[in-house]
Design brief:
Layout: E1 4-7, E2 12-16, E3 22-25, E4 30-37, E5 40-45, E6 48-52, H1 75-82, E7 100-108, E8 111-118, H2 128-140, E9 145-152, H3 165-170
Parallel strand pairs: 8-9
Antiparallel strand pairs: 1-4, 2-3, 2-6, 4-5, 5-6, 7-8
Length: about 170
């Protein structure tokens, strides 16, 4: 699907990369799909890069994408969901990139409370709130999730050594 051309079939909201600013793209505009990972698309339109949510995929002629789980919010399923979240500039999920520092789950009588502490590859990355919101939205959809808090932290500072071996291999760092 990489480098597949498309024409926008209906007006759609996207997020500009890397600053994360919500932007409106008009019907009829042409572009290219740069990557389709998790349930989102990274697209290039008029030389600019954007993240298109999978739920809006029909706007570029693709099948609507939603990762949705009926599984209970336990540790294994939470990590499975986190593996479906991607930085739109990097074709590796946030777990293998080493961006997730902590996953805390507190059982309550009426469900579980989930706290995720994560970082970004660069502190000034404007996509941080967009990625954090995606994590929160996906985890909130798990059965039994009472609350989800996603905290962006900066200590320790992220570096390439935090990536999994598979991520380093995929990115050609070995």
């Amino acid at each position: 699907m990489k480098n597949k051309e498309f024409k926008i079939l209906e007006d759609v909201n996207v997020y500009s990369v890397p600053d994360g600013i919500k932007t409106f793209l008009e019907k009829g505009t042409s572009g290219i799909i740069a990557q389709a990972l998790g349930d989102n698309f990274t697209i290039i339109v008029e030389g600019n890069m954007y993240q298109l949510k999978g739920i809006d995929a029909e706007a570029i002629g693709e099948e609507k994408r939603e990762i949705d789980s009926n599984n209970f919010a336990n540790e294994e399923e939470i990590w499975n969901v986190l593996h479906t979240c991607y930085d739109p500039e990097i074709p590796v999920n946030i777990v293998d990139l080493g961006l997730v520092y902590n996953c805390e789950i507190k059982d309550k009588n009426d469900g579980v409370e989930i706290l995720i502490q994560m970082t970004l590859t660069a502190p000034g990355c404007g996509m941080g709130p967009v990625i954090a919101d995606e994590v929160k939205q996906k985890l909130s959809s798990l059965s039994g999730a009472k609350s989800v808090d996603v905290e962006l932290v900066w200590e320790p500072q992220w570096n390439q050594d935090m990536m999994s071996d598979a991520a380093k291999l995929q990115l050609g760092l070995y």
